[in-house]
Structures are given as structure tokens and as C-alpha cells.
Amino acid sequence: MASMDDEIKDKPVIDMDMAMMQVDGDYEFLQEIIDDFLGDFAERKSNLEGQIKKCGSELKAITDLRKDSHAVKGSALNLGLGRVSALAKKLEGAAKECETEKKTADADTQKLIKTLGESLFNEVERVKKEHASILRKHEEENG
Asked: Crossing angle of helices 82-100/59-78, nearest 10°?
């Protein structure tokens, strides 16, 4: 697994205070939209994996990778998923750099993109676990 830099590691897996502000304190709605994000990400992950595999040979894969990473970044940021958002931003930036130069990823950039993708996927798994833990705790406290 790729290591995260300190900027990302210092963020909480789920920033509940920020997330609750986004939904005006509606806990049930927040849980629903986090569930939706995780469901959508499960579908998007296979697209991202394909784009990452093809980023060294297809410019379209680079463009699609940038767009999908951008979508993940924004959704995650709105839900208080700062680590996911930061990793998606880095992935988007790597793809955008290639796209700007109108070239596919060279070997070093492919390695970077693969590492960032793996880190993103691992972080979403952390969100799933944290989300489940928060739900259990909420149910225990609120019956």
C-alpha cells in the first residue's frame, strides 16, 4: 500500500462535524448520502481501475480518469471525507498534467497514478469501516 503524506494522514477518515454542517445536522440524511457515495464509488472503482490500466496507452483513459477523479473529489469533500478528496485531487492532478500535454502517461507517471489509485481505493475501504462503526455506535446510543 502506498503511504499517504502528512497532509492527508492528518485529516480524519470522516470529519463528522463538517459533514453534519453540510446536512444541517440531519444525521439520518448524512448516513444515507454516505451510503449513496459508497455505492456509487463501488461502480466508479471499476472504471477507475480500467482507466489506470490504460493511462499509458490511451489518451481517452487519461481524460476519463481526470473527470472521474474530479467527481470523487467533490463528492467526498462535501461529505467530510477529506482523505478521499485529497487523494482524488492528486489523482486528478496527475491525469490533468498528462491531458494538458496531450500525451499518455509515461512510466513514472503510470506508477504514480497506480499508487494514488491504490491509496484512494484503500481509503474508501477505511471510510466503509468507519461509517459502519459510526452507525453501530449511533444505534447503541439511540436504541
From this structure: 150
Q: The whole model's pTM is what? A: 0.90
Place of cell 502506498: 2
| CA dist., res. 33 & res. 92, Å (int) | 23
Burial classification of residue 27, based on how many CB atoms lie within 10 Å of its CB (0-12 exposed, 13-18 middle, 19 or more buried): middle
**Per-residue pLDDT tens digits of the chain, which is 143 residues long:** 344 577 788 889 999 999 999 999 999 999 999 999 999 999 999 999 999 999 999 999 999 999 999 999 999 999 999 999 999 999 999 999 998 998 889 999 999 999 999 999 999 999 999 999 988 988 888 86
